[in-house]
Design brief:
- There is one protein chain.
- An 8-stranded mixed sheet has the order 1-2-4-3-5-6-7-8, with helices on both faces. A two-stranded parallel sheet has the order 9-10.
- The longest helix is centred in the middle third of the chain and has 16 residues.
- The N and C termini lie far apart (about 40 Å).
- It has one domain: Rossmann fold.
- By secondary structure, the chain is of the alpha/beta class.
- About 35% of the residues lie in helices and about 20% in strands.
- It is globular.
Length: about 290
C-alpha cells in the first residue's frame, strides 16, 4: 500500500513520468549530415498522426528541449509524434546546426538531407499523415527549420522560425555572425529568390510560416525577423500565410509560460506571457 501511495504521489508531481517514451534511432537511412535521430512517441497516438520536427538551438540537446518547451506535453495530450534531430559535437562543438554552410542546407545534401531521411523513416515505420508535417526550432534550429521549408517545400505543411535568421543569409561561419548581429540589407525579391532556387523546380504551395522573435534579442537581432517576413511574403506573393510575432521585452530564447502549464525555463528557454508551442499547435490545428 505504501509503495502504491508513493507511486501515485510521483504521478501527480510529474504527470508525464509514465507517459509515452523517447527513443533513439541509430539507423534511419542516408545520413550525410551525421545527425542523431530521437523521437517522442505518446502513450496514445492518433491514427495517421501529425508529425512535428523540432530542432534545438546551440548548446542544447533534443530531449531536454522537447520537454522544456512544452512540446512533449502537447504531443502526449494530443497524440502526435515529435521528430527530434540532434546535432553531434563532432559536427559542431556548440551543438549548433550548420545553417551557415551551403553544403548542409542544399536539397539532398548534408544536414537537411539527413533530416528529410528521418521524416521518411517516420513515414515508413509509423502511421504518419504526410500532409501534416510541421517544423519548428530555436536560433540555429529555427534557421535549419527555414532551410527544411525552403529545400523541401512539398513535404512541409507549415513551420516556425523562432529567434532565427532568414534562409540563405550566410554561406560561411564568418557570414553567420554578420547575419546574427548586422544582417545584410538584401531586397525582398533577392531573399525570395534564395528560397525559390533552393527548391529546384517546385511550383506548388509553399509552407505557411510563423516568425517569433524577442524584441530585446541580443544574440540574433530582431531585424532578422523582418528579413524572414519579407523573404516568405515574397515567396508566397501574399501576406496571409506569413505571420510575425514580436514579443515585447523578450531576449534570445524559446518563449514558455510555466504559470499556464507551458514548459519550464532553462538556458535559452525563457519565461514569457506567450506559450510558443501552444500558439503554433493552434495555428497548425494540432489542438
Amino acid at each position: 500500500m505504501k509503495s502504491l501511495v508513493t507511486a501515485l504521489i510521483l504521478l501527480i508531481i510529474n504527470p508525464l513520468s509514465w507517459a509515452g517514451n523517447f527513443d533513439t534511432i541509430s539507423r534511419f537511412g542516408d545520413n550525410p549530415g551525421n545527425l542523431t535521430l530521437k523521437i517522442y512517441k505518446p502513450s496514445k497516438v492518433q491514427r495517421n498522426a501529425p508529425l512535428v520536427v523540432l530542432m534545438h538551438g546551440c548548446q542544447q540537446q533534443a530531449i531536454p528541449f522537447a520537454t522544456e518547451t512544452g512540446w512533449q506535453e502537447l504531443a502526449e495530450q494530443k497524440g502526435f509524434y515529435l521528430l527530434l534531430p540532434e546535432q553531434n559535437t563532432s559536427n559542431n562543438a556548440m551543438r549548433c546546426f550548420t545553417w551557415f554552410e551551403k553544403s548542409d542546407i542544399s536539397r539532398d545534401k548534408g544536414e537537411v538531407a539527413s533530416i528529410m531521411a528521418m521524416i521518411e523513416y517516420m513515414e515508413s515505420n509509423y502511421s504518419i499523415n504526410s500532409d501534416k508535417i510541421f517544423t519548428a526550432g530555436l536560433s540555429a534550429g529555427a534557421t535549419m527549420s527555414a532551410a527544411l521549408m525552403a529545400t523541401y517545400p512539398e513535404r512541409i505543411a507549415a513551420g516556425a522560425i523562432t529567434s532565427g535568421v532568414s534562409f540563405g543569409c550566410a554561406s560561411s561561419v564568418g557570414d553567420s555572425f554578420i547575419c546574427m548581429f548586422s544582417p545584410n540589407d538584401l531586397d525582398a525579391q533577392t531573399r525570395g529568390d534564395l528560397v525559390r532556387e533552393a527548391s529546384g523546380n517546385f511550383r506548388g504551395k509553399y509552407p505557411k510560416v510563423t516568425i517569433i522573435h524577442g524584441e530585446k534579442d541580443y544574440l540574433v537581432k530582431p531585424t532578422n525577423a523582418d528579413h524572414s517576413e519579407e523573404q516568405w511574403k515574397n515567396v508566397h506573393g501574399e501576406s496571409m500565410v506569413v505571420e510575425k510575432i514580436i514579443i515585447p521585452g523578450l531576449g534570445h530564447g524559446w518563449p514558455v509560460n510555466p504559470s499556464e502549464n507551458c514548459g519550464k525555463t532553462s538556458q535559452f528557454v525563457v519565461n514569457s506571457n506567450v506559450c510558443a508551442a501552444k500558439v503554433l499547435a493552434k495555428s497548425w490545428n494540432l489542438l
